[in-house]
Every structure is written in structure tokens, then in C-alpha cells.
């Protein structure tokens, strides 16, 4: 079998824009995702700006987070926005029935969340309550946030924000097939039509409405939503988590795994390609012009919680394996930019495949954070198809091409190429035919480590960080890269 990979970059056939909203983050009222991870309160000894911790906000700003989805997740379908406005001390304390049964103080509500996205320079993606909320409640929330005038706008002003907020993205419920109400697809599609009708943007503004989409390979759900509700929405979501060990419920550790666990996880991550392809084919039947986009607004690894943490908090560590999972997804999304205009990894801080872990005043950036950072040039760049022929990486029951790749022409005019070597044992020379691309110089960064489960900890936060990569060169029209085993490399061609 050949021990090297060949690739061709098709710069002459650009494939569309890699929408920056593919890098959307998800922040749910779950575990320490909000309280502790983002919000510490104004009086906290942890340095903060109006309650949001400065270290975490600065790290997320550096990542150029474009959008944040909030307040859930499952939490969204039992969230009542009126409980999260007005004087903080007077807000009702509820039980978070989905996540750990802990109390929810409603301290972070609409005004606080909007302040957070403003601090981040991001846009809000608000998820509305279809599950146990009313159409009127949802309509009034939208009016409260966006109306320039009227009594809800006056109430907003009295609560400290005179100017209306822009709400560019609005989710019409979440997982209506499950925690959002256990609805049948036709019923959910009818409910989506009804609720979406009353999500109204003030004149001169636009709210992009996203319907609650399928769980994994529930193609019947996509069929029903497209057939019945597509004309009332702009996007349809899809949720798929990488969950080795036989699927739900999660039963394998984020950090204690052998090579089988590595191979199975990456193989499960690669399944996203098949899922997008098949859901898109159904969408094509009803929407051949691709007006309705696919929003993969929950993806990422889901392992068992770290020992001695509240199991309802979904707090998991993050290793080099997660970094490869992230790169595989970000590369796959490039292949599907005709339909995929938004995705959101779950979740932003302290939950599932997170960017950032916190412990009191301490903060650590995960390997996944570093992958997102390396891919910043992909935001709103033009995708250049890259065809790769790589030898397979085989382990036990799992076989997959060893190399995953994507390429873009960035807003800086440079060509950026991302490669991941999924094989944890063998380095792989990759030879990329650049066609008509004129480039003389290549610079890059690599994320790799000696062990598959290398991670950053509070004691050693810099264990796994990107470092300059010297293994790439250009000769004529060929880019040659020697990819170390289990690595992610991002190159900048000039
Ligand atoms: O991200 C955790 C949960 O996973 C979300 O609340 C829900 O939408 C999904 O089931």
C-alpha cells in the first residue's frame, strides 16, 4: 500500500463561502457553562466586566467568535424570558430540571446575554421556547428585544437598554422530537409554522428563523419539516454528537482510551459527512435552490463526565483526540458550504467539547480552542475544493482515509490549507498539486503531542498549543508536507 498521499487543489473552481457562522458557539444554562464559566457577578474577586469574567471573554474575543447560541439547548424550551429581566435580586429562582436539578437564579437574562455578545463583538442566536411557552410569549420576547417603540420597548429602556438589539438569528424551539416536547414530526412542523409566523422583525431588519431539525439520521424528520414548514423558516437544524461506545447514552471517557477509542471516535466524527449529504438530498427535493440552509447547531464529542463532577453538568476534559475531531468537522463543512451556512459546536465553556475550562479563577484553553484559532482564516473565506487520495488508517473495525483536508482563499488573499493526519502511528508525506496557484512561500502551525490523550490542565495549561511548523515546502506547482502522526497542520501560502 502507498505510504504517501496525493492531493489536488482546485483553485480554478471555488465552491462558495465558508460562512463565519460555521464557527458559532453554544452557551446553555447547563452546569458551569454560564455561571462560573462566563458569569461571576460584578462583586466577584475574579476580574470581570459587568459580571462577565475578563479572562474568558478575552480568550473568546481572540477566537473571533461570530455568534453565540443561547439560552439552550433543552433549557430553551422551558425558559421564560420575563423571569430574566428587571432587578436581578428579584428574579425568580427556578430548578434547572434538565441539567443537574440545581437552582437557576435567572441572573443572566436577556440584558446580560446581550452585553456578553457585545463584549465579544459577536451576534446573538436566540433560541425560543416552543416546548412549554406560548406563541404570544415568544412573539413578545422578540418584540421586547427588537422593537424601536411601544410599551415593550419602553420596558426594555426602563431596564437599561433604550436602543433595540439586533436579533439576526432566532431558533424556533430546540429538539422538538425530544426535550423540546417529544413531538411527532408533522405536529412539530405545524407548531413551527405557527410559532414562526409570530416571530416578526421590525421593518428594515431581518430575523433569520431556524427550525428545530433532526436528531442524527432521522431523515423522516427532515422530510416532514421541509414538506410542511420550510416556507416559514430560513434554516433547519441538525444535531449530531460524536459518541463512541455504541451511541446514547455516552459511556466512554474523554481521557482514558486506547487506540480503539481513538479510531472509533474519529470514524464517528467522519459520519457527519454522510449525515449532511443525506439530509441535504432531502432538502434538495423541496428546496432545489437551497434557500433554506442547514444549521448543524449542535456537534462535538460527548463523553462521560469527569469523575466526581455532577453528572448533569456534562463537564468533560478535552484531548488531542478532540482536536482531531474538530478539524475533521471543520474540513467536512467546507465540502458542504452550498447548504451548511451555520454550525455550533457544543459548547463554549465547561460543557462537552468545550473551548475553555474554568476552575474558580483559573482558566485553561483546550486543544479544541486551538483548532478553532488555527482555522480563523476560514471565516467568510472562499472554499477551494481539495481532492485527497490518502492511504487508509485501519484499526480494529475502523477504516478511514488517514488524511482529512480543506482549503480556502482567505479574505487576506492568501491560500490557507488545513490538513489532519488521523493515523496516530505513522507520519504521512502529502503532495499537493497547486494547479495555477502562484505561491512561493509557505508558513504554518502544527498541533500535536506525543500521546493520543494529551491535554491541557490547570496545572499545565500550555501542554498542547500550536507551534510553528517547518515540514512544508513549495517547489514549482507542488506543495509538499510531511504530516506527523496524529496532527493538525494549518498552512498559509503566500
Ligand atoms: O448540548 C447538550 C444538550 O444536547 C442540549 O441541551 C440538547 O439540545 C442536546 O440534546
Automatic annotation (TrEMBL):
This protein's UniProt keywords: Carbohydrate metabolism, Glycosidase, Hydrolase, Signal
Any Pfam family hit: ASD1_dom
Matches recorded under InterPro entries: Alpha-L-AF_C (IPR010720), ASD1_cat (IPR055235), GH (IPR017853), Glyco_hydro_b (IPR013780)
GO molecular function: alpha-L-arabinofuranosidase activity
Alpha-L-arabinofuranosidase C-terminal domain: residues covered: 297-487
EC nos: 3.2.1.55
Biological process according to GO: L-arabinose metabolic process; polysaccharide catabolic process
Recorded catalytic activity of this chain's protein: Hydrolysis of terminal non-reducing alpha-L-arabinofuranoside residues in alpha-L-arabinosides
PANTHER family listed in its UniProt record: ALPHA-L-ARABINOFURANOSIDASE C-RELATED (PTHR43576), INTRACELLULAR EXO-ALPHA-L-ARABINOFURANOSIDASE 2 (PTHR43576:SF2)
Quaternary structure, from the entry: Homohexamer; trimer of dimers.
Family classification: Belongs to the glycosyl hydrolase 51 family.
Name this polypeptide is given: non-reducing end alpha-L-arabinofuranosidase
Native organism: Novosphingobium umbonatum
Classification of source organism: Bacteria, Pseudomonadati, Pseudomonadota, Alphaproteobacteria, Sphingomonadales
Amino acid at each position: 500500500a502507498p505510504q504517501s498521499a496525493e492531493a489536488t487543489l482546485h483553485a480554478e473552481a471555488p465552491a462558495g463561502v465558508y460562512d463565519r457562522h460555521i464557527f458559532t458557539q453554544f452557551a446553555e444554562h447547563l452546569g458551569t457553562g454560564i455561571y462560573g464559566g462566563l458569569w461571576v457577578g460584578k462583586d466577584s474577586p475574579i476580574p470581570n466586566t459587568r459580571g462577565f469574567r475578563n479572562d474568558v471573554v478575552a480568550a473568546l474575543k481572540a477566537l473571533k467568535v461570530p455568534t453565540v447560541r443561547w439560552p439552550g439547548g433543552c433549557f430553551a424550551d422551558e425558559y421564560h424570558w420575563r423571569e430574566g429581566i428587571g432587578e436581578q435580586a428579584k428574579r425568580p429562582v427556578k430548578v434547572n430540571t434538565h441539567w443537574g436539578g440545581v437552582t437557576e437564579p435567572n441572573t443572566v437574562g436577556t440584558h446580560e446575554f446581550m452585553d456578553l455578545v457585545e463584549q465579544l463583538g459577536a451576534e446573538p442566536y436566540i433560541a425560543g421556547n416552543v416546548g412549554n411557552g406560548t406563541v404570544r410569549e415568544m412573539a413578545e420576547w422578540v418584540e421586547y428585544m427588537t422593537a424601536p417603540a411601544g410599551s415593550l420597548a419602553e420596558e426594555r429602556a426602563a431596564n437599561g437598554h433604550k436602543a433595540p438589539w439586533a436579533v439576526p438569528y432566532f431558533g424556533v424551539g430546540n429538539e422538538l422530537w425530544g426535550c423540546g416536547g417529544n413531538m411527532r414530526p408533522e405536529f412539530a412542523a405545524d407548531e413551527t409554522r405557527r410559532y414562526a409566523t409570530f416571530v416578526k422583525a421590525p421593518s428594515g431588519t431581518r430575523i433569520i428563523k431556524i427550525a428545530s431539525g433532526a436528531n442524527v439520521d432521522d431523515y423522516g424528520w427532515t422530510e416532514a419539516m421541509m414538506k410542511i414548514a420550510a416556507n416559514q423558516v430560513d434554516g433547519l437544524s441538525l444535531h449530531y454528537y460524536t459518541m463512541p461506545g455504541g451511541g446514547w447514552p455516552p459511556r466512554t471517557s474523554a481521557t482514558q482510551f486506547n487506540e480503539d477509542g481513538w479510531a472509533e471516535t474519529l470514524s464517528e466524527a467522519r459520519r457527519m459527512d454522510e449525515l449532511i449529504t443525506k439530509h441535504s438530498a432531502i432538502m434538495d427535493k423541496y428546496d432545489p435552490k437551497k434557500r433554506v440552509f442547514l444549521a448543524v447547531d449542535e456537534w462535538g464529542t460527548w463523553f462521560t463526565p469527569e469523575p466526581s463532577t455532577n453528572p448533569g453538568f456534562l463537564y468533560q476534559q478535552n484531548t488531542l483526540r478532540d482536536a482531531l475531531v474538530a478539524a475533521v468537522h471543520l474540513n467536512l463543512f467546507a465540502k458542504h458550504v452550498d447548504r451548511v451556512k451555520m454550525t455550533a459546536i457544543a459548547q463554549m465553556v465547561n460543557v462537552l467539547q468545550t473551548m475553555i475550562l474554568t476552575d474558580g479563577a483559573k482558566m485553561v484553553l483546550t486543544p479544541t480552542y486551538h483548532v478553532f484559532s488555527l482555522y480563523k482564516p476560514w471565516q467568510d473565506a472562499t472554499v477551494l475544493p481539495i481532492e485527497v487520495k490518502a492511504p487508509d488508517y485501519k484499526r480494529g473495525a475502523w477504516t478511514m482515509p488517514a488524511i482529512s483536508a480543506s482549503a480556502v482563499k482567505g479574505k487576506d488573499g492568501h491560500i490557507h490549507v488545513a490538513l489532519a493526519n488521523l493515523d496516530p502511528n505513522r507520519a504521512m508525506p502529502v503532495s499537493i498539486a497547486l494547479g495555477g496557484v502562484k505561491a512561493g512561500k509557505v508558513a504554518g502551525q502544527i498541533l500535536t503531542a506525543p500521546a493520543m490523550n494529551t491535554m491541557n490542565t490547570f496545572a499545565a495549561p500550555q501542554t498542547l498549543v500550536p507551534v510553528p511548523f517547518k515540514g512544508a515546502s513549495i517547489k514549482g506547482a507542488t506543495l509538499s508536507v510531511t504530516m506527523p502522526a496524529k496532527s493538525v497542520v494549518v498552512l498559509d501560502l503566500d
